[in-house]
UniProtKB/TrEMBL annotation:
GO molecular function: tRNA-guanosine(34) queuine transglycosylase activity
Organism per entry: Methylopila jiangsuensis
Assigned keywords, A-Z: Glycosyltransferase, Queuosine biosynthesis, Transferase, tRNA processing
Biological process per Gene Ontology, one example term: tRNA queuosine(34) biosynthetic process
This protein's name: Queuine tRNA-ribosyltransferase
PANTHER family in the cross-refs: QUEUINE TRNA-RIBOSYLTRANSFERASE
Residues at the catalytic site: 92, 266
Amino acid sequence: MSEIPFRIAATDGAARTGALVFPRGEIRTPAFMPVGTAATVKAMYAGQVRETGADVVLGNVYHLMLRPGAERVAELGGLHRFMNWPHPILTDSGGFQVMSLSSLRKLDKDGVTFKSHIDGSTHRLTPERSVEIQRLLGADVTMQFDECVRLPAPPAEVERAMRLSLAWAERSKAAFGTPQGRALFGIVQGGDAPDLRKASARALVDIGFDGYAIGGLAVGEPQHVMLAMLEETTPELPAGRPRYLMGVGSPDDLLKSVARGVDMFDCVMPTRAGRHGQAFTRFGKLNLKNARHADDPRPLDPESPCPAARDYSRAYLHHLVKSGEILGMMLLTWANLDYYQRLMEGARAAIAAGRFADYAAETTAGWEAGDR
Ligand SMILES: CNc1nc2c(CCNCc3ccccc3)c3nc(N)[nH]c(=O)c3cc2[nH]1
């Protein structure tokens, strides 16, 4: 098993706060991990991402194997050097992106063959190749190669993908070996079927991983189904290892999932919404394209320590967004990532103080109170 320590400093109900300790630094949990698809957190430079409070960013096998190529990144010193991010990096294993981005793909029990969405060239991913690519990139956290099905799906299809992912979990672990200072996470599948979720979690624990991701969610199911699957799954996972809910989510999703024992999150929402003119604030979500902001001299949040949220009027942000100005994307991405990091920072402090339920209630009330 891993020599990557996961120190749990406090618990509050099922919620935990602590830190994963890597040679490149620690990941404070609960943690939000900004998505860095093409070796960049879009519209942000690396130091700015760090200033928002991020301890770790995500990379991706699918995108980087297609462009610029895993061997090329390795030749250039690895992904940390390439993107000037000296802190931990978690890389996703590519299967999910193949199914959601590439055309003409053929999945078999051994792996997946697919055409690049960039130039139509043919590629193949197997558990072994995915783990090798993540090694070439230099990932601190490697994800097993898995198959995620969209919901709703027939139970037989969900079970087939869950069992295939377990076979690929074994092969991913065998290919990973025991590299010093690096972690390998298994991924729980099983769709919206409690018995399949429990079987998947128990089998992964028997194989043994440094951390456990909960996959196959945030794929179209209602929030209550996602939360119900968390309640079925986290009790089957070892309390002393981190849990990572993949692709989640909104601020409300994060608080409700932290309350159910999740430690790590990734989501394109704060960065994608920022590029589309939407801002996450203590008062709820604002769409700066809306004409009601055209004459509003107030910033997003005058009490925010983030310059993007404090030093620019909503009228100006509205103007930038309506004009399609690059600065609009930059400022709203910055403000959103800062908001997500502060949301997690507040959660960590509230858990340590034994008041997470109050924190979640106060934060949710702020969103509902809406704009002042
Ligand atoms: C949005 N909902 C959602 N996302 C899911 C992902 C991808 C998580 N994001 C990784 C990423 C990394 C870099 C760049 C872009 C994305 C999954 N990944 C895997 N391997 N397995 C899943 O079951 C799985 C389920 C998901 N649901």
